[in-house]
Model the fold of this input.
Amino acid sequence: MQSLSPNLPPDKQREMLRRMLTIRHFEERASADYLAGKIYGVVHCYIGEEAVAVGVCSALDRTDRIISTHRGHGHCIAKGADLNRMMAELYGRQTGYCKGKGGSMHIADFGIGMLGANGIVAGGISIITGAGLAAQMEGKGGVAVSFFGDGASNAGPFHECLNIAATWKLPMLYVCENNMYAAQTAAAATHALSDVAARAAGYGIPGVVVDGNDIFAVHQAANAAVDRARSGGGPTLIECKTYRWRGHTERRGQPDPRDRAEVEAWQGKDPIALLERRLREQGELDDAGLQTMEGDITGAIEAAVAFAEASPFPLPEQATDDVFAA
Amino acid sequence: MRELTYNEAALEAIAEEMRRDPKIFYMSTDALPPLLKEFGAERVRATPITEAALTGMAIGAAGCGFRPIVDWRQVTFCFVAMDQIVNQAAKIHYMFGGQVNFPILFRAAVGGGTQVAAQHSQSPYSMFMNVAGLKMFLPSTPYDIKGLLKTAIRDNNPVISFESSRLMSRKGPVPEEDYTIPFGKADIKREGSDVTVVALAWLVHEALAAAEELALEGISVEIVDPRTLVPLDTETIRNSVQKTGRLVIADEAGPTAGFSAEIAAVATEDAATFGRLKGPVKRVCALPVPIPYSPILESHVFPDRKRIIAAIREVLEARRPAAAA
Done:
């Protein structure tokens, strides 16, 4: 997987690295604050899978639309969400993206085409397919991207939507983040085929498997799929083979049946370290540059935490706001 | 005034709104021929039989500025889309802090009387009334369905139009000119002074027939048609019960945790209304069984004018027990 010619301007590559690092540091902080009791409920970390969200989103325009899963921080950051409003939402504050009504599993920012994390596995697939239909009807060349996991690829809406999108040639990318486990259950125990992408054949659309930890491979596949979608060619199924470093959630004491050697082997294939190494090989990143980048990111995350902590909680009676639109 | 059937009035409402607003499009597993002919296959989409996908897609399209209509046809077909209805459509505006609106109309035929058995006959609106975030209505006349559908299409929320299978070919006056009927406004279909009957859809007509018959005996029946289930016009219902002091609720659905139970609660949890009740509230509902096929069985399951008359007689005879001294 080495030495794939990136054919990307160095600034763009550094921006990819910055976004991946932002996801990782944001989640490391969210996890720590969750364990400290400052963030409630449940937090699902995307750490280890950053190349998928960033590789795909860096092939999109701001007006293109995406939808996410319960493991949604990475997609939000990759699409350009505001860290302050994200952190404030995790902190349950009025200034959060959802005014404290959603939390980690429901962050959305329709203004940047991020149609939401979703707490139901496969819950977002049909919604974003509707956004694909909207893009087609708008006729402005927009595309829509469904991010989902290997677990969701076994649910009905995945199959229903691939069929409709293929039949109507909707400008869609279906991006399966195959991290090999649906919560604690191994994909090998629930999939008859080892590649989710192989299912594309059943719908007459391209299905490609890429190394989900190689951001250039992800980006290249996404670019090709975006070109196809924008030019009226219809949807593509992209399966990104990747791995979740953390447990299913950040809650301690959960079962994690995964073999430690397997986890460590995947940690050795860190998508961030890979891009960093490639940038260094190209002479486009040095220690000072990386230090500055990390400093900017941790500063932004500190600022987001400060913003969240300084933000008011919602008023109790605001629980009844926004059930209906005016 | 000209007369249209319930079904014609519904189609006219949709066609008029689609002419007015190009953002409206229609998805159903079969395209309705008159709509398809006028608006073409882009706006009137014949879809695969995948109600879950259609329902979810409507949410996404609505969030992107369109105003989709999804015709589930029989309400029973929407049960495969429960995640999209309950977890997504109902909650998405609230859960995301009201960022954008999701204007969607869902259409579903409800009720029985058509001998199509359990999987094509049901009145499950109370299941949906129980979910915060959905508006819904169930009209009894061509006039009402047209006016309510137009309001629903212009509303910025997911709205379910429950439409009575039995009433599809029933005719009634519908004016030529544009009109809408606001949500949350009950209609008093007949004024009376001795007993209030709150009835929905087909049972409004059965209650009207019952009232005619009882009028011959000098019994004066008031019939309140809530029309919208969410939001519900509790004020009109309570005012009527306060006036008559007696309440019968007639519903084609079963009684358990149903619309009828909600109406009983509306009347009895309000002190002013409870204070005027002269006797117990009586419900006239379907028997709690899946709807059977054979006409003999089916008509036994559903309430009708005879059961409404019996219920009215019962509440007229009933008295509040004297308070213990």
About this structure: The domain at 3-173 of chain B is CATH 3.40.50.970 (Rossmann fold). The mean pLDDT of chain B is 97.
